[in-house]
Amino acid sequence: MLTEEQAAALAADLVSAATRAGATAADAMIGVSRSSGISMRLGEVEDIDRSESFEVGLRLFVGQRSATVSTASLDRADFPELAERAFAMAEQAPEDPYAGLADPALIGDGRGIDLDLFDPAEPDLASLRASATRAEEAARAVTGVTNSNGGSAGAGQSLVALATSTGFARALRSSHHSISASVVAGEAGGLQRDYAHHGARFLADLEAAEIVGQRAGDRAVARLNPVRIESGTMPVLFDPRVSASLLGHFVAAITGSAIARRTSFLLDALDTPVFAKGVTVRDDPLRVRGLRSRAFDGEGLPCRPLDLIADGILTSWLADSASARQLGIRPTGHAGRAVGGSPGAGPSNLFMLPGKRSREELLAAAPRAILVTELIGQGVNPVTGDYSRGAAGFLVENGEIGPAVAEITIAGNLRDMLRTLEPASDLELRHGMDAPTLLVPEMTVASA
């Protein structure tokens, strides 16, 4: 694999080819990755995957016209032709008054920030097979598990470089390791499936395969013999497995593009209460070993921690340079992009800070509630905030988690849900987006 310096130099060479072709501005990205994975089912190898990928992307501007092209070739000899093709495309594109690179005055180099994202350890296929096998065996050993969808383990490394005609040229190397298991519990006519997964930057931070496997088995067995409940209005608790999905809806509503298009249910919410007093939602791109950590964004702007929600108040939109120009604000350092695409705003390591009450206290906050552990479908209107999704989970009575419930629908409006929800104190930072158990005091629950 290329070094970071080589990748950054390669991207800078492509930018130089673009300016020689006549571009008034350009940026380029280089992406290189390799990964290995193995899946085991019932003790036998089901699938082995080994992949390496190379991608080069060029975004070229001719005034306010732009075009984006990509290739899989890392050969510098191919760069002039790629640049000329992009230039010809840009000349035919319509003008966009908001197009352009980030303001050079805002660019930062991100140097001196060590986020510790790269683990040189690369487990071989024999090690991955052993991990996947242990995960599946632990899941199948749980009483009540009757079949398996398999256990899997994987590892990989990636390198992404960005260069711009304004002088930015940097690269970021990272690694990932993962382990998962999925099993079936029960007999014909009453089967239930569930899974468990864990991912980490470093192999040493990855949960033991046996722990992941047992969690998958326990989850599947707990879903057996679901009961039907009466439809009505009641409190709903979102387990940490699904609670971050509410943050996903929130953050989609505060991206600059959604605000500029006026397609957000939070259109006029800046500097107003969106969550309850005391709630904080933080984006932290500088978390050491974070799954979405980065020192610079997809336009070369420096990344900094930001409380998007402070004491319940919405403090900022998420804006790349184009949407920031539309809104008349500064870009916020949240531009993300695929190698062959244009920037768009999005969070890094996003999480809601824990609340004061424990999960057990929230479970006991009402005589009867639903604890949701799985969400199904995409029934969310981003313009109105209307929310209606299929769900499964457990009935909670007098603070005790009882029988499973399945084939239910939970409904409400995201504005009301966000404004009234309460976070528990059980936050764990396991993903790129995390939240503790969340209690929404009132939602409509319907049985299928």
Describe the structure.
The chain is of the alpha+beta class. It has 3 domains: 4-221, PmbA/TldD superfamily (PmbA/TldD fold, 2-Layer Sandwich); 224-245 and 355-447, no CATH class; 255-346, no CATH class. Helices cover 22% and strands 36% of the residues. It has helices at residues 4-20, 79-92, 125-140, 209-222, 240-253, 256-261, 321-327, 359-363, 414-420; strands at residues 25-41, 44-62, 65-71, 145-164, 169-185, 192-200, 232-238, 281-283, 306-310, 313-314, 335-336, 344-345, 350-352, 368-376, 386-397, 400-413, 422-423, 433-434, 438-447. It has a 6-stranded antiparallel β-sheet with strand order 3-2-1-4-5-6. The protein has a 5-stranded mixed beta barrel with strand order 7-14-15-16-19. A hairpin with a 2-residue loop joins β9 and β10. The longest helix has 17 residues, at 4-20. The mean pLDDT is 96. This is TldD/PmbA family protein.
